[in-house]
Amino acid sequence: MSRLPITKTPKVYVGGAFIRSESSRVFPLADAAGNFFANIPQCTRKDLRNAVEAAAKAGPGWAKRTAYNRGQILYRLGEMLEARASELGDALRLGGASKAAAAKEVTASVDRLIYYAGWADKYEQVLGNVNPVAAPYFNFTVTEPMGIVGVIAPDEAPLLALLSLVVPAITSGNTVVALASSAQPYPAIVLGELLATSDLPGSVVNLLTGFRKELVPTFATHTHLRAISAVANADERKALALGAADSVKRTRLLKAEVRTDWFADAAQSLYAIRDYVEFKTIWHPIGA
Amino acid sequence: MSSLKTLAKSAARNGRPAPELIFGDLWEYDPAPETADPKLKARYDLFINGQFVAPKLGKYFDSINPATEQKLAEIALAGPADVDAAYVAAQRAQENVWGPMSGRERAKYLFRIARLLQDRAREFAVAETMDGGKPIKESRDFDIPMAAAHFFYHAGWADKLEYVAPGRRVAPLGVVGQVIPWNFPLLMCAWKLAPALAMGNCVVLKPAETTSITALKLAEIIADAGLPPGVVNFVTGAGETGAAVMNHPIPAKIAFTGSTEVGKSIMRSVAGTDKKMTMELGGKAANIIFDDAPLDQAVEGIINGIFFNQGHVCCAGSRLLVHEPVAARVIAKLKQRLKVLRVGDPLDKNTDVGAINSKEQLAKITALVASGVKEGAEMYQAPCKLPAKGWYFRPTIFSSVTMSHRIAREEIFGPVLSILTFRTLDEAVEKANNTAYGLSAGVWTDKGSRILKMSTELKAGVVWANTYNKFDPTSPFGGYKESGFGREGGRQGLLDYCKLV
């Protein structure tokens, strides 16, 4: 007798919990063959605001973790991904990737995590320094996370690109609210399940699924997002930059029309971490 | 002597301020004017492609000495065609001369500029004070030497750029458009020019309309130094000229120092372009005094923090947060200190607080102070005599200020201090960070661990602990939140003028 398989109801990982959109809206996702696969939450502006609120609560705690601890947590997340490589591969194949291509993206994603895990307790030593001021003061420059970073991921490399934008931001203690690819949201759903079983505190990374058209304006104008990291088309870039002006938000906007090689070594960098830190310079007199 | 000391000690025990020495009118200070010749021209033209050129529309505006309200010189008003000519010259120079030049040679030009500026330091100091109204002791001892130091520091970077971004190679961005404010005219010029030039960029810079003279005097030095034509171009004018500088298609980057309001409008105007930006905007810094702080030093720090340059300082310590147990003593000491501040002729070597930069700024300060009185804060002003002519404002402190008062939230940019109190460290942090700004902060305490705790918690780009308003070319400066982004000075500032390749 044949058994009817139990299909999964995809939920997004927001605020450390698995939720459907507050609107109860969903959009259907088909597999590579064009057959119905599942209904994906169609997150709203309200979901985005809720996610930002959750990220704000998690921020100070995450930033206060030691750099060593953040590195270990990122490394363990890499372990989670490696162990569930086949499940992630299946998620990527839904979008039409070949088995080999999917496997390549998963291993590249794991390697990317390991790369940033190693930076967690080193970037400060490279980016900050003591400044030899011309007066009797001890003067040093350190980095601090900016706060909440809004991430808008591209459709290509739906797992690797998403992680390449999210991980450098959280390495330094930021929290993230990310919008996954609309075309291929399922890898982000699985990633959420891995985040939940990793040691990353809830709400440090919040993953939304839905449509750019609905959510980009709120990403642009939400004043609690201190920075935006997005792969965006010309109209979206302009909207994000205009919205950023209202609260002097930092933006790092990659062009959707220019192909980014997410697999290249150039797609991971100390300077991606630097883009989401503030520099703080402290002076103190030297005396008795 | 010993009796005075005993008196002071017993007064301190009783929580009262030490007895003050009141000289009254017994000994007036004789005038001690600085008399070096500022060597001003009657008319200043634009500096484009290595030449002083008349503006295409032939229009000029007056630069006024705020201390006397007298005209100092006529300044060319640059229109869009002039700005365009400046950018074309800059682009040509960047592509053909300055960009391809070896860092070692670029460095020599910058060293030369630093040296020539040091040679003419006193002349520049007098010009700066006459044009902007700041006390001669500040322009002489701070603005001009620090400007020279910025050129000297960055000169040495020009041939060492491979150390700016470890692991990556750097390249110049191309042409940079820069707009600077009127509070530190020459120093801001140096802050903007030196890193841009060291990195191999060429520049079109617009000084503030009320303080263009020292930039144009710097153009003389740039010409004397033999800097290739077009590497640095100065266009003068007001907001419209600034908008033309910011919105021109040639610059790969724009750098702005000024108010948050204008910064936001610039961000909007370049939205959708690929221009990089550095924004150094306003501030409303908290200067936090704990009960264990060395109070006399702290009081000097508070005074320096808010009255330096008439309070025309984006990082001014304009919100004083005092620990409740010492609030009464600190306020009493501040009032005493205010009485002996010498306000008046900026060219007098004894002057502590000079003239307000412009009539408009004086009106803005006056309006905000009126709002402070109206909203119920308690005002105290120094009982000094102000000169009959010129734009001056009495050093002012407000006590009983609450977080909702306009004088606690808005940048006044004048010699006005708003005093609030706190009971716990957490309350101090909460109040200090409860602002859209995040440029700077001050902390005064004897406890080392508390300094490190506070400097971690305060959301500000610069934290001065047991000191205030200190600057250095090696020390990155810039804000969090709506105080802007990017840094100026140090290795971090240099990186904002290059691209990684």
Please, could you describe this protein's structure?
The complex is a heterodimer of chains A (288) and B (501). Helices cover 43% and strands 23% of the residues of chain A. Chain A has 10 helices and 12 strands. In chain A, helix 9 (234-246) links the parallel strand 10 (225-232) and strand 11 (250-255). In chain A, helix 2 runs antiparallel to helix 4 (99-119), helix 4 (99-119) runs parallel beside helix 6 (160-171) and helix 8 (212-221) runs parallel beside helix 9 (234-246). Chain A is globular and about 85 Å long. The N and C termini of chain A lie far apart (87 Å). Chain B is α/β, with parallel strands linked by helices. Chain B has 2 domains: 43-281 and 480-500, Aldehyde Dehydrogenase, Chain A, domain 1; 283-465, 3-Layer(aba) Sandwich (Aldehyde Dehydrogenase, Chain A, domain 2), CATH 3.40.309.10. Chain B is built from 16 helices and 20 strands. In chain B, the strands form 5 sheets. Chain B has a 7-stranded mixed β-sheet, with helices on both faces. Chain B has a 6-stranded mixed β-sheet with strand order 9-8-7-10-11-19, sandwiched between helices. A 3-stranded mixed β-sheet of chain B has the order 1-5-4, covered by helices on one side. The relative contact order of chain B is 0.13. The model of chain B has no long low-confidence stretch (mean pLDDT 95).
